[in-house]
């Protein structure tokens, strides 16, 4: 198994580079032709089509309502603010909508989401477009400055779950009409900025969820994912209502919501998969992908240093320069992309050489964790268990957290035998705020310090979205995978700052490479990645953050343990084979050693096995290709359990070579 991964770590990136070099010109040419063809030949006629718009009382939702009204659509406007909604409805009627209904609802409540979909379909008899727009922003100077971390929960509940709930009830009606879902996300989902950590995370979760859903639904329902840059709305203006953000607002131009709405509706009617507005924001994407560390430094400088230190003259001068720069649409939309490409090509090689040199230096100066205090969540099995053993071998003192107390004690005993001088076990549920505070406090009270926080606890739900009968059964995925990390981090930050410590976030490559049936797992991991990227720009060098994105690792998940659509943990090895197919599974012992090495080196990102990182670039440059391949492999077939992925595994007999013994014949630990 080790030999297979070593071979793939060398061969897969090289093969991908060759294929991308050959394939990309043809792919880009095809995309360009398709874009022009859709612009010239196809645009859906919205006259008498039925459109639900959430968050329609103001901002982008309001302007989108007006744009659909101009096209003669029937509207169902949803918002919690009924007074504003009535005014929007009246204006929409005056602009050309033949019929408008308004529905007061809170999208974070599943009953309200069912009600507004039912009322719309009962009134109009159909549903053609669902625009998931409702959202809020909660901002503090830093995450740790929240008086109560639970203040942040509504951001995920409204922005993410509000979109999920409405979609869940709308899908049957949208399938009947071959309709469309329009998702108003944000560029902050892939270009996270400080002070908006939870907002950024919610938008990353939305993007990933609907990318996964698009794989599952295929062509039956179109999905347009909108990633917005700075738009002038009441929500945005409220979010920048402090001195730092006002300073930033002076130098970054905000586009008008009305123009944004036109672009959104045009793209939806064309059937675009993605749209970014204003279009210059797309230029930031390759920079974020290729130079993440550089962009972290730039973002931190812009948000921390410049707004706090400029004189009035400097600010006005910068504003004048930037205003002129950004007001020239031709320069932004035509010249800026090729200039960006040229600049990237110019600095890419020196940057890679510097990264290699920096990696060597960090490897030589790797942290000695002997005597350090390491807190590990989800430590009763899988990656968490073996991270405990690896830290134990290096002489670290351990605080092990999980729900299974008996298993924790077994892991603690073995960790001590491997070299840990002191181990405590703390039974806790990371989805409960009070438990997270308790395990951090107990650790610091016992050891007097905290050096590494390893957020590893997680569960994997598995079900096609349309097969779910009660979507609330999957809420624990976000509660454990995302909030379980965020809560513990919130309480640990003051102690980690004292020790110049490190947060090790065990996320997943599913955060950028979504697989069908796992949309809640995928979206929770995307949220976690973006949350810690945001947090890293807030904390700077005070606390290191290593974001770990594992591929397929020997664990209870790869042994077939999933959260079922009924909300129960089950073992289903047949569905495990459907999901994993012919991908080799990495030994958990080797993975744990590599992860601890990465954390001790101070890596910002670490992917294990290494070749999995290559899939990120396929996702960035050829997202449509990956979606088609995922659907063909994991969805196509005579039945769900007869997917091509399962047939490949059975026909080739590769299971005996690609799956370790513990996966082929698992001995799962009791719950």
TrEMBL record:
- One Pfam family linked to the record: adh_short
The Gene Ontology terms for molecular function here are:
oxidoreductase activity
The record's subcellular locations are: Membrane
Name the keywords, alphabetized.
Answer: Membrane, NADP, Oxidoreductase, Signal-anchor, Transmembrane, Transmembrane helix
Membrane topology per the entry is: Single-pass type II membrane protein
Task: List the GO cellular component terms.
Answer: cytosol; membrane
Q: Which segments cross the bilayer?
A: 12-37, 316-335
Q: Which family does it belong to?
A: Belongs to the short-chain dehydrogenases/reductases (SDR) family.
**Per its record, how is this protein called by name?**
Uncharacterized protein
Taxonomic placement: Eukaryota, Viridiplantae, Streptophyta, Embryophyta, Tracheophyta
């Amino acid at each position: 198994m080790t030999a297979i991964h070593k071979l793939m770590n060398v061969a897969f990136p090289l093969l991908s580079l060759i294929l991308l070099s050959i394939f990309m010109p043809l792919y880009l040419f095809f995309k360009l032709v398709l874009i022009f063809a859709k612009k010239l030949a196809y645009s859906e006629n919205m006259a008498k089509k039925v459109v639900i718009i959430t968050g329609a009382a103001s901002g982008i939702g309001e302007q989108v309502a007006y744009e659909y009204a101009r096209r003669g659509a029937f509207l169902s406007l949803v918002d919690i603010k009924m007074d504003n909604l009535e005014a929007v409805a009246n204006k929409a009627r005056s602009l050309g909508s033949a019929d408008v209904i308004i529905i007061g609802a809170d999208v974070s409540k599943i009953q309200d989401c069912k009600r507004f979909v039912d009322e719309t379909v009962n009134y109009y008899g159909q549903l053609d477009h669902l625009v998931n727009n409702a959202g809020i922003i909660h901002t503090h100077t830093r995450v740790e400055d929240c008086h109560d971390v639970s203040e942040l929960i509504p951001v995920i509940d409204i922005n993410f779950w509000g979109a999920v709930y409405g979609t869940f009830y709308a899908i049957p009606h949208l399938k009947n009409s071959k309709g469309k879902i329009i998702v108003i996300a944000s560029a902050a989902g892939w270009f996270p900025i400080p002070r908006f950590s939870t907002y950024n995370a919610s938008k990353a979760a939305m993007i990933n969820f609907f990318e996964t859903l698009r794989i599952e639904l295929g062509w039956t329902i179109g999905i347009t994912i909108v990633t917005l840059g700075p738009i002038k709305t009441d929500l945005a203006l409220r979010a920048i209502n402090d001195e730092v953000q006002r300073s930033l607002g002076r130098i970054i131009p905000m586009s008008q919501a009305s123009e944004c709405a036109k672009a959104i509706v045009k793209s939806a009617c064309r059937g675009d998969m993605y749209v970014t507005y204003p279009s210059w924001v797309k230029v930031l994407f390759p920079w974020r992908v290729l130079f993440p560390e550089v962009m972290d430094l730039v973002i931190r400088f812009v948000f921390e240093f410049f707004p706090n230190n400029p004189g009035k003259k400097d600010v006005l001068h910068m504003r004048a320069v930037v205003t002129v720069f950004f007001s020239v649409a031709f320069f932004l939309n035509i010249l800026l992309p090729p200039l960006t490409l040229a600049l990237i090509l110019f600095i890419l090689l020196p940057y890679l050489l510097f990264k290699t040199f920096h990696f060597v230096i960090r490897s030589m100066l790797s942290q000695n964790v002997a005597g350090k205090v390491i807190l590990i969540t989800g430590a009763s099995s899988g990656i968490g268990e073996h991270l405990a053993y690896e830290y134990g071998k290096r002489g670290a003192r351990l605080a092990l957290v999980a729900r299974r107390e008996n298993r924790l004690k077994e892991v603690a005993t073995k960790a001590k035998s491997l070299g840990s001088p002191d181990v405590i076990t703390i039974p806790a549920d990371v989805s409960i705020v009070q438990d997270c505070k308790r395990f951090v406090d107990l650790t610091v009270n016992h050891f007097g310090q905290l050096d590494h926080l390893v957020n590893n606890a997680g569960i994997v739900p598995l079900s096609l979205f349309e097969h779910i009968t009660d979507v609330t059964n999957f809420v624990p995925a976000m509660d454990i995978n995302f909030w379980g990390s965020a809560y513990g981090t919130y309480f640990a930050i003051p102690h980690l700052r004292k020790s110049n410590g490190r947060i090790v976030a065990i996320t997943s490559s599913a955060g950028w490479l979504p697989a069908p049936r796992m949309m809640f797992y995928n979206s929770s991991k995307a949220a976690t990645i973006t949350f810690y990227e945001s947090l890293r720009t807030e904390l700077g060098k005070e606390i290191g953050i290593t974001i770990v994105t594992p591929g397929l690792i020997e664990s209870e998940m790869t042994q077939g343990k999933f959260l079922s659509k009924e909300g129960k943990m089950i073992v289903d090895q047949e569905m495990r084979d459907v999901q994993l197919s012919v991908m080799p599974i990495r030994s958990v012992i080797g993975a744990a050693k590599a992860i601890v090495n990465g954390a001790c080196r101070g890596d910002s990102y670490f992917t294990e096995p290494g070749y999995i990182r290559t899939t990120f670039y396929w996702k960035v440059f050829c997202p449509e290709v990956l979606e088609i391949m995922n659907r063909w492999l994991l969805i196509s077939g005579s039945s769900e359990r007869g997917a091509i992925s399962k047939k490949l595994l059975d026909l080739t007999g590769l299971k005996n070579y690609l799956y370790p013994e513990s996966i082929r014949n698992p001995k799962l630990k009791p719950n």
